[in-house]
Design goal:
Layout lengths: L1 H28 L2 H26 L7 H17 L9 H5 L15 H24 L6 H20 L1 H4 L5 E2 L3 E2 L2 E2 L3 H26 L1 H12 L1 H6 L4 H27 L1 E2 L6 H14 L5 H20 L4 H15 L3 H8 L21 H9 L3
Antiparallel strand pairs: 1-4, 2-3
Helix pairs in contact: 1-8, 2-8, 2-11, 2-12, 2-13, 3-5, 3-11, 5-11, 8-11, 12-13, 12-15, 13-14, 13-15
Length: 372
């Protein structure tokens, strides 16, 4: 118990140290543009933590987290677009002949309601979708297909509502927030700092959820849901809860990304973007949390570098990176380090309800007797 408590203190200390390094040192090393880019990537790391929670630990591959990411982004963008003189409408609405602010835009005059919407709308939507899917015991590829179909629905909905959401262009040109210019370097540094703080907080929440009995139950659901059900637990409730939490995390990430990039559009709900999120986690390492962050930063920095150097073929590099990691490092980068007993936080081995294929005696038996 003392050793475990000491490991926890070391992990907390390292998270705080990394956060302080990002807030204090990185602004001295990077240009204003590169620091903003890092802030966006850290925002993406937040949504990657949510995907690791639902995919890495619970075994449910979601290909639709762009929906929740986009909803969080649109919520904060609607608040920013309403920072206009009283009685005026957002500029794009005038282009489409809108003469009165739609009723569903009204709550976004309030900052507290907007913050609640950033968290609750994606979280509740994920919970509702999860309840409808999991109560019918749909899982595996069916769950992935359903979440992917959801991105098509939301992408087309936001893309087709020009008068309400500016269609393909999305919501852009944010001006002020609490009297400060949104694009100002000092304001953007505040957003960057908040992103680092929320990333550390999200990591702490995910670590708390994935340790102890709740975390072990999630892993048990991932490895053998039927056995969990026979043990007297109802996996549906736990899956709905963790999917809702994952969706809320994606909404927060979307808000931070939008406020730093200066725009949100239906592309955030595109299928390709949701698949990219999964790639980040796969590259870093499933069920590692820190791997989700590492994978996100690595892939996005590689994409930025390669797109600057090889503008027309950089997508091939991204695909190759994914294939290499999946074939050579199936547990991802952090998973490989852990398999070599190299751990950043000196943590004990991750819990698994089953041995690995290499250690499973039944698999070994089949291999030895195959062909006999």
């Amino acid at each position: 118990m003392r050793r475990r408590g000491g490991g926890l203190l070391i992990e907390v200390g390292m998270v705080v140290a990394i956060a302080l390094f990002l807030i204090i040192v990185m602004p001295l090393l990077l240009t204003e543009f590169r620091l903003n880019l890092l802030g966006r990537f850290l925002s993406l790391a937040i949504v990657a933590l949510g995907i690791d929670l639902i995919w890495g630990y619970t075994g449910l591959l979601s290909l639709g987290h762009g929906i929740f990411f986009g909803l969080g982004g649109y919520a904060i963008a609607m608040y920013l677009k309403l920072q206009v003189p009283t009685g005026e409408l957002p500029d794009f609405m005038l282009l489409y002949g809108v003469t009165e602010l739609p009723a569903f835009w009204q709550p976004f005059y309030s900052f507290p309601l907007t913050i609640a919407a950033v968290v609750l709308i994606p979280g509740l939507l994920a919970g509702l979708l999860g309840y409808l899917v999991f109560r019918n015991r749909l899982k595996g590829v069916y769950f992935s297909i359903l979440t992917q179909a959801g991105t098509i629905v939301f992408f087309n909905f936001f893309n087709g509502q020009q008068q309400f959401f500016n269609g393909t262009n999305g919501l852009i040109d944010f001006t002020t927030l609490f009297g400060a210019t949104v694009s100002d370097a000092k304001t953007q540094f505040v957003f960057y700092t908040l992103t680092v703080v929320f990333l550390a907080a999200t990591y702490g929440i995910c670590r708390w959820l994935t340790t102890g009995r709740f975390g072990r139950l999630l892993i048990a659901i991932r490895d053998d849901e039927s056995r969990v059900r026979f043990s007297g637990y109802d996996p549906t409730d736990f899956k709905v809860l963790v999917f809702a939490v994952s969706g809320a995390i994606a909404g927060i990430a979307g808000a931070f990304y939008t406020i730093q990039s200066g725009s949100v559009s239906p592309r955030a709900m595109d299928i390709a973007f949701s698949i990219e999120m999964v790639i980040w986690v796969a590259v870093g390492g499933r069920a590692t949390l820190i791997g989700a962050i590492v994978g996100t930063l690595l892939v996005n920095y590689a994409r930025t570098f390669l797109s600057e150097q090889f503008a027309e073929i950089w997508l091939f590099f991204q695909g190759a990176l994914f294939l290499i990691v999946v074939t050579v490092l199936p547990d991802g980068i952090v998973g490989w380090f852990r398999s070599q007993n190299i751990s950043l936080f000196n943590r004990r081995q991750e819990i698994s309800t089953y041995p690995t294929l290499e250690e499973d005696p039944e698999v070994q038996h089949e291999r030895e007797n195959i062909g006999n």
